[in-house]
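The protein record passed on below.

***
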Amino acid sequence: MSASLLSVVVLVLLVLVILIVFLFRKSPSGADGEVKGRDITEDPNSPLRKWDCSRDNRQIIFSDVPLGLTPYLVPFNKEALEAQPREGFEVLISIAADVRFRDGSSREIDNFKSPVTLWMSYNARDLARLEENKYTIDDLVPVKIVPGATNWRPFSGKKIDYSKMKRNENGDFGGVSITVDSWGDPPMGWGTPRSSS
């Protein structure tokens, strides 16, 4: 075998090995397509962490997360989720994210040792959808897929703070704070109208 033919064979084998490695490589979280939240805790010694899972110009911030838990944004099938029935509201304005919490062993966790607070803002597309459906910011309600079921419902039985729904003096979009004791990995988003009860 000539030296040039041997070098071509070696080069082809090298390219094949590289392609195979990239093909079977996992994301850092160990699951394809997952994106780890960004730890934005100000105090490195704090036993409670603050995580940024923002996407699509929409803030999604988890505060008071127990040390050792990490949120991951998980890919979702938008069309399948949009097709799910709705209870307690009429229009699904948007699907913000599907977030899962994992411990150090990569196990999904659905109950927290202490309450965690979620801050979720709306974005410009949410405002456009509200206008299309003849609703206002005052009609927005945070919604989620109910764990163990396949339907959308407003977050309930939790502490929900609507006091920052309006845009602030800097023009930043508003949103809600929701305090939860458990998670159950629900996809979440915005619906309308908000129930008057």
